[in-house]
Amino acid sequence: MATQHTHQEHLSYVVFITAAAAIGGFLFGYDSSVINGAVVGIQRHFQVGPVQTGVVVAIALLGSAVGAWFGGNLADRWGRTRSMQVAALLFAVSSIGQMLPFAIWDLALWRVIAGFAIGMASVLGPAYIAEVAPPAYRGRLGSFQQLAIVLGIAVSQLVNYVIARLAGGAVNNHLWVLQAWQWMLGACAVPALLYLMFALVIPESPRYLIMAGKARRAREVLAEVEGEDTDLDARIAEIQHVVRTQRVPGLRDLRGPALGLLPIVWAGIVLSAFQQLVGINVIFYYSSVLWQSVGINQSDSLLISFSSSIINIIGTFIAISLVDRIGRRPLLLIGSAGMALSLATAAWAFSAPRVNRGGVVALPDPQGPIALVAANLFVLFFALSWGVVVWVLLGEMFPNRIRAAALGVAAAAQWLANWAVTVSFPALAAWNLPVTYAAYAVFAALSFVFVLRRIKETKGRKLEEMG
Question: Coiled coil: which residue ranges (predicted)?
Fold first, then answer.
């Protein structure tokens, strides 16, 4: 009985430090989506058009790409927890900067800094979790990162809605001394400070401690996360051996006959790109603007955005429960088919001629309700498939000798595709919204063909068999 109680305490501690590290994912989701509520306020406050708006919204993604690129090196130099603390401080400071911009370029600069912090956190969280999680629980604990991302999206939408309501329903209305959209961006400092607080109390990764020559402290942490019944001497020796002999793969290891890269690397790049080219982040960055463009008021558009975030969470739980049961490929194929149909339906609905209802331009019935349902079905199909499964596949599909380098290249492709979609949507939507959604539907259909022809099932296979 005492042993069972000790095991539960040990597991609870591991869950606590894993959840604390996953707050970086929460910041990722929160920052990705908080701009959704502020877009209209930024446009009106600074009197900028769709092109400038797209640049300001998307520029954080370029900062994220840089932060992710350097995050691993900084973690090896400073340690995992110290790097988390730096990321948290950068995000907190940039949140205040975004809250109090004096010009549009000033806002863009603070968003780049926020993006850099998010890029760091997006690398640090999964790395830390993988290094502290006991092997028996690594898969489930690793899913905390994606769950934290979708929770961050949902909470930011709810906070945006509450702030807009307090300001009388319009994001340019004043709430005390600032406009509502400024409070939305400034509220990001709260989860950033929470991340900092937890990063100050969780233990350093045993792997980093051994790299830094602190084997005694590494032994103490291993005893805390894996239990006293673990052969600690053997675990220390195993990590020391890996640290001494492991060669970090470089870009030269990815070279191959297919346009300069190995076919499996191209498969990972295209898989990452398709995850973004279906337009999922348009929903989380611009859905408030989207629904206002078809006649829904600001306050209600933010509430709709929050409901989409809840659907995103539900879909993520579905994916987590099914990915090891029915496999990766079937989930991706189901998601691609569902996204293609729902996006095509949304494109048809948005093509309806606008009608004037009491001075407000809106979609007619039944196209209005159909567009709303189609958009939320798109979110559901994405969340239960591509949202989770792509990250699972990217961690599994590459051979051991190139996994780290190939994963970095594929992740960079995802950031760039995300940036391209995000920066182009305002101008494309202003030009022709139905055609824009039809293009996303085409990418979803192409993703179905790509998975069918190029992606192999990894369920139940050892990592050593990949390649």
Answer: none
